[in-house]
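Figure 6 in text form: structure in, sequence out.
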């Protein structure tokens, strides 16, 4: 197991050198991928921004990341500050069915729309967390890839989605 972790650490930086949007996706996506994509694109349609395309490359990166978090970090949020991609994370739990359906995970992020003030391009006072919503609808993002893992002992599920190009650029509006 330690050798697998080391290999993952060595591969992640080199994998990020490639462009996510340049990677072709299959014409028919697996159901979870299609569900993630559809849920994101519904939220984006509501604010008239371009639809995202599924990136197998980003999906592979997030799958590696959630498995690493599961195996080495006890299913905690990953530190995404050095990632070249935008990212959203969701930690859910409490039962063996800890892993939320893809649509439900995205809907959790979209709930933060209620706390986003478009006029001021800020989160409303008292609700300083609306960045996951703005990442979902960031108009310049074009590619999406998501991964999920369940941590059995903790009965937690971790969901991570990456966006390329990233959103939440200071001083810019999402749409």
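Output sequence:
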């Amino acid at each position: 197991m330690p050798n697998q972790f080391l290999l993952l650490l060595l591969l992640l930086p080199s994998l990020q050198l490639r462009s996510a949007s340049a990677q072709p996706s299959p014409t028919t996506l697996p159901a979870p991928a299609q569900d993630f994509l559809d849920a994101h694109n519904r939220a984006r349609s509501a604010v008239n921004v371009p639809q995202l395309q599924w990136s197998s490359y980003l999906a592979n990166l997030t799958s590696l990341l959630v498995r690493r978090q599961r195996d080495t970090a006890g299913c905690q949020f990953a530190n995404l500050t050095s990632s070249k991609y935008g990212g959203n994370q969701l930690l859910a739990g409490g039962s063996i069915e800890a892993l939320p359906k893809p649509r439900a995970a995205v809907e959790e992020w979209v709930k933060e729309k209620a706390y986003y003030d478009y006029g001021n391009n800020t989160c409303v006072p008292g609700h300083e967390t609306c960045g996951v919503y703005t990442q979902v609808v960031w108009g310049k993002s074009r590619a999406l890839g998501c991964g999920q893992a369940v941590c059995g002992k903790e009965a937690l599920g971790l969901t991570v989605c990456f966006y390329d190009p990233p959103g939440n650029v200071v001083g810019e509006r999402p749409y």
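Caption detail: The longest strand covers residues 143-151.
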